[in-house]
């Protein structure tokens, strides 16, 4: 097999798709990536963030340091596609295109191997656990990674619904701030014939959901954008002689930035405090799966735009951030950089749909765009 041809990377992507692993469990995925990219002779390979992998190209202590990141985890979704490379793991599949993102980074490694740069260092990060918001934190806190201080960080995400290959970006917020809130309501069970002798949280839970709905500003073009999505609720038991004494409500919150998220969570906590006063029901909250907004540095945005135009790729400046979260936002909180999107096809099923699949035609152009971004910093004067 000739590994300098894009077909090799399509086959690699299909192999990843057939054997997906969910967040934090990418053990075999890590091994598969490591075995494949070794042939591209990185100057160093290091395991990071548990099940992640870091490739280094260039040994120079001086000069710029650029980091490119791809995510590797899959989702707990049963695939319905019937193509030859369909998932062989029951209930798990690559429905966000992280297998494609990984293949792009592997292709970039092959390009760096045959076209070394003059100065500085480039790091390629195959990051686990993006879907839970824990992977970026694990990589950034890895003792090996803490010695790296990149001047620029870049990442991409494929975009269903956009023309194949179009590059989509914007300065400032690119993806939303996302936080999941879990609210527990602890009352007291009783006989369902005598609910007055217990404390049933049902109506408080319902009122909380109705009140939270009024706090929304669902228009993504608004600076006050705030979306509150109920994702799970539970209460009591399927025993019809018992009035429930315990319930949970889980919601996902989305805003443009961290400041607006803080305002929204404060508003929700105020609602809960008001509803629970003198009720006898104990209300507690906790948070999970936090995603910081991707804050695209204006200079990094311009680099992406110039590189796309130079390569002849169509370019679209998005007017408002995407509503979904991406944990690369934690990288842009610490380092200057940017995330961009590349169209997966106008008729592509949406992300996280059970019939979605990554468009293999993006592997080569996306890798070439990353290479151009590297060359801007690492090959001064090269046109």
TrEMBL record:
Identify the cofactor(s). Answer: Mn(2+)
Taxonomic superkingdom: Bacteria
Positions contributing to Mn(2+) binding: 96, 98, 131, 157, 352
Q: Which SUPFAM superfamilies match?
A: Bacterial exopeptidase dimerisation domain, Zn-dependent exopeptidases
Q: Which InterPro entries match?
A: Amidohydrolase, Bact_exopeptidase_dim_dom, Peptidase_M20, Peptidase_M20_dimer
The UniProt record lists the Peptidase M20 dimerisation domain at 178-274
Q: Which Gene3D superfamilies match?
A: 3.30.70.360, Zn peptidases
Print the keywords alphabetically. Answer: Hydrolase, Manganese, Metal-binding
Q: Name one GO molecular function term.
A: hydrolase activity
Identify this protein by name.
Answer: Amidohydrolase
What organism does this protein naturally occur in? Answer: Spirosoma validum
Source organism phylogeny: Bacteria, Pseudomonadati, Bacteroidota, Cytophagia, Cytophagales
């Amino acid at each position: 097999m000739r590994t300098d041809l894009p077909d090799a990377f399509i086959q690699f992507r299909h192999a990843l798709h057939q054997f997906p692993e969910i967040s934090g469990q990418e053990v075999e995925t890590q091994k598969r990536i490591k075995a494949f990219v070794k042939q591209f002779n990185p100057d160093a390979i290091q395991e990071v963030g548990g099940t992640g992998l870091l490739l280094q190209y260039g040994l120079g202590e001086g000069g710029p340091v650029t980091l490119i990141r791809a995510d590797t985890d899959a989702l707990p979704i049963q695939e319905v596609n019937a193509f030859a490379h369909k998932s062989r793991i029951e209930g798990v599949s690559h429905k966000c295109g992280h297998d494609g993102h990984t293949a792009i980074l592997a292709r970039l490694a092959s390009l760096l191997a045959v076209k070394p740069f003059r100065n500085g260092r480039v790091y390629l990060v195959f990051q686990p656990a993006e879907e839970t918001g824990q992977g970026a934190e694990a990589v950034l806190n890895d003792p090996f990674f803490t010695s790296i201080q990149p001047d620029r960080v870049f990442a991409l995400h494929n975009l269903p619904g956009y023309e194949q290959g179009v590059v989509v970006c914007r300065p400032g917020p690119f993806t939303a701030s996302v936080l999941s809130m879990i609210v527990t309501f602890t009352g007291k069970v009783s006989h369902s014939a005598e609910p007055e002798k217990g404390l049933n949280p049902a109506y408080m839970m319902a009122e909380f959901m109705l009140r939270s709905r009024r706090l929304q500003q669902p228009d993504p073009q608004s600076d006050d954008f705030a979306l509150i999505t109920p994702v799970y609720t539970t209460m009591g038991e399927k025993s019809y002689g018992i009035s429930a004494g315990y319930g949970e409500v889980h919601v996902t919150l989305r805003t443009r930035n961290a400041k607006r998220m803080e305002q929204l969570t404060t508003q929700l906590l105020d609602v809960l405090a008001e509803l629970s006063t003198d009720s006898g029901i104990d209300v507690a909250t906790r948070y999970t799966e936090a995603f910081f907004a991707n804050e695209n540095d204006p200079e990094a945005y311009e680099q992406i735009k110039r590189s796309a135009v130079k390569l002849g790729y169509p370019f679209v400046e998005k007017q408002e951030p995407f509503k979904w979260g991406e944990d690369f936002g934690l990288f842009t909180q610490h380092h200057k950089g940017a995330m961009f999107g590349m169209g997966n096809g106008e008729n592509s099923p949406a992300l996280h749909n059970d019939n979605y699949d990554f468009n293999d035609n993006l592997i080569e152009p996306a890798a070439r765009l990353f290479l151009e971004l590297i060359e801007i910093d690492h090959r001064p004067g090269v046109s």
